[in-house]
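Minutes, project check-in

Agenda point 3 was the complex the collaborators sent over. CS summarized: two entities, 1056 residues total, and the question is how they sit relative to each other. Sequences were read into the notes so everyone works from the same version.
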Amino acid sequence: MKSVREFNPVDAMRETGLRLVIISYIAVAIFVVLAGRLWFLQIMNSGVFAERAEQNRTRILPIPARRGTIFDRNGTILVTSQPSYNIVLSRKDVSVKDFPAIAELLVNNVKIDRDWLNKRFEAAQWEPKYESIVVKELASAADVAWVKAHQYEYPMIRAEEAPRRKYLYGTLAAHAIGYVGEVDRRELSNPESSFSREKGFKLGDIIGKAGIERTYNEVLMGKDGERRVVVDSRGRIQREIERIEPIPGRDLYTTLDLNVQKVAEEQTDTMPAGRGSIVVSDPRNGEILAYVSHPAFDPNVFSLRAKTDEGKEEIQQLTEDPNKPLYNRPIQGMYPPGSTWKLLTTVAALNEGVITPENSRIQDGGIQLGNYFMRSISNYGMPDIVTAIAKSADGYYYRLGLKMGPEKFERWVEKFGFGKRTGIDLPREMVGSAPTRATKIREYDFYIKKAEKQLAEATDKTLRAQLEFRIKQLQHEAEWTAYDMAASAFGQGRNATTPVQLLRYVGGLAVGGQMHTPHLFLRAEPGVDRLGNSHPEMRYEDKNTFVVPMNADIHDIVKKGMWQAVNAGGTAGAAAVEGFDVCAKTGTAQVVSTEKANKATQDHAWLMSFAPRDNPEMAMVILTENAGFGGKQSAPRAKPIYEEYYRRTRKITDPVVADAATEPADKAKKAETPTTVEKTQKTEKKRVSAQ
Amino acid sequence: MFGVSRRYLTDFDWPLLAMALLVAAFGVLEISSAEPFPGLWRRQLVGIGIGLGVLFFVTLVDYRRIVNIAPYLYVVGIVLLALVLTPLGREVNGNKSWLYFGSFGFQPSEFAKLFTLLFLAYFLSGVKRYPLDLWTTIVAGGIWAVPTALVFAQNDTGSALSFTSFLAATLFLSGLRWSWLAAALVAVCIAVVVAVPYIKTCKSYKCERIKAVYWPDLAEKRFRYQNEQSEIAVGSGGLLGKGIRGSTQGTLGFVPEVQNDFIYAVASEETGFVGSFAALTVYLLIVTRLIQIARRARERVGLLLVAGFASLLLYHVTVNIGMVLRMLPIMGIPLPLMSSGSTSVVATLFGLGLAISVRLRRFVN
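CS then shared the predicted structure for the full assembly.
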């Protein structure tokens, strides 16, 4: 190394001094950089970081508001919310391999079944991590106390306040009341839905899922409160800074009458196929007194047990049951109205002058329509209109329909509001279909369009010819025929109505034309909604009420015919209640099936009725599915319901009647009702033979 | 040699000791404020007490005597470092850098640093060549490499890199050629440029820690967390801070290792810009004071010793505070004198004692 100079201490020291200065400059430079960074963080941006520190340490925990109580019209509690706690396991700081230890801990200290919990944890492995696991619902006070006492040792286990919806009468009026559940992710993210984020809903909110719980969710939901708490980095609550108490939702009174509802439920319990509906209203205002869809489900399954395994199993069973307990028959079931439709034809014919009250005799019995003979079960010769109603003379109505023609007929189908929703205050009501030419054309149009599309694509000559012929044939078939007219006039054909549509219809017939929208909402107490706005007392407002023109003469004929059907040897004799002047019309909704003999495919039995004849207070529609004839199957079920109402409102304490009435349902119903049905069938036979 | 003369008292570097004790007191205050374990500050006081004892002992001894046994100390340091890798060593926070004898545990790397520095100073001061020849440089590199490799093996990257700080300083002051220095800097720059794409895609925790600072979007969230919380702690302190015991970031557990590597974060949160800037200034004053002592040293060995210690201290302060301020990746490096931990405090005061000892003997009398 030649470049290495001879060591000279003085030179070396001089240069070393220079190099030391360089090191101190480096130190100063570093100092300046660090100080600059401090300035940037603490002076220029301290606001941002102060806010983030605040967010770090405080949490806003919602305190769910109690949902409003639901009452019947007389103030009996049907649905209530009870304070309750869930024990939940936060997944945030827990990994799957900790599960056995935690399971051990929970089984020993909080009463939980070990096998159940293991299953729960197994399932939880596949669930998203941000969702905490509910390990116990409806925890006891002791469980909650244990969890709170061990908050520091096991911060991942928490007790969460969760007011629980309790449906006190279980399956009773389940389809009218509905149930609650957690808001859906899809509903939240869809701005169009009534439960979107934009409207202020958030994950975990308990909302109405069906029935009036859903329709009146805004009334029932209260304003959630909140707790601002200081937490540490593991989310353990250190102390509370502020607490805003929740404001409970508004109490809601339904139009339901628990007494009527209970009797109606007993009547559906004995329906032979195990399926049917009963809806009862006050025809003067459309208030629904009873609403039964049978079979029913227990809403508590959804509100109390939806997250547990047994609850999930129960829900699974409900969806798989062939009798479809979740199906809301009164608003979703669409059945041909059968002979109940004859009153519409009657009112139409009288209004249009096709017949007059004085001159209304028309031939009954089967009729030859071209090359098709349309049979009639009845033949009463030349009955007048009242008898035709009372005896349900099919042949009479074939001819009346043909005489009237489709224009006049359809005008009245529309005036009665068929082919449209009633606007009942329940979600997911079905429309049904009206027996009009338009309906028929629409039905055939589908096939015509399909054939036309095939034709446009077809190249083969024979196929084209075939398709052209088929289109012509379909166009021909779509025309309104005499058969269509005759069938539509007595309630078959392209005609499908829901029980609630018929209820409004019979109510209108009862009061002489005023059609009230059937509804379940009576009133809501004044209070605060979920956004904190105050509301005065709310009452139901019928915005869709309308009038079907019907003069007193016509009204009289309707009432007389329906009265005779019950009280003078007509088809609905089994519905008679002494002193209450029940008026009714039976109907048979034909079930189109190749297996007519099979019990499951028997016709549906209708009974629509009202009482009393003058100044009616009650209207009722009963549908017994796959049971056969309305007079036999549905009429006897109306009687106990009228009786109950009649006795209670007239304060009759006749010992015999009172005995049958005050007897609670469960004892009497299973044993006695079939015999009642038999009995009434016998008396009916007697009456028929007497005539 | 143990004569406490008037000269000793007047020449003793009281301001340096005062500044060190000031910072240490600030540390004790903040440890008691953060208080992750009750009574930790008392243990820190004990550590400071022991450290002061060591400091005064060292100042009373002529540092040349210590330098003379530097080769033995170096070997002792190597042995201790090697022992850490045996079952005697214990792992704390992912770094296997602790050695336990019964319940008494310490981090040999803290002392190994000083012993290595002593040995380097001993070796380089004996080389009568200027500028340095290649052979001497390679031997110095060898002295550096052994303990560095052992500390690397303990997975303690921060400490391993700290050896480089005084190696660079002592070589630089011993007359490293400018051209070699420039070449080394260029090599470092090239290495960085080459490493960047690799680090961006690499998933090891070391890479993640680097990404968490420079490319936060590429880093996993859990690695960003500590940096972010520390940054929030410092920033939320503002100008005047939240007051002693006013910390939320530290005391509620958002900032990790508050008593230790992140003590400066809590200090900044509680005392604000005023406090954190003051502490930083005192550290700068200590470092510049040490450099001043080095300049006035009577002989090369003293100069190299004190300047090397100054650079080690500067490295610790820079890396620790840089980490707290989210400018450097997280490495397990304590803040000298402030962080809780007796080994670090005692080692630092031992180093300061050496410096004071050099100053005391700056005059040939």
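Noted in discussion: The first helix of chain B runs from residue 6 to 11.
Follow-up: revisit at the next meeting once the mutant set is ready.
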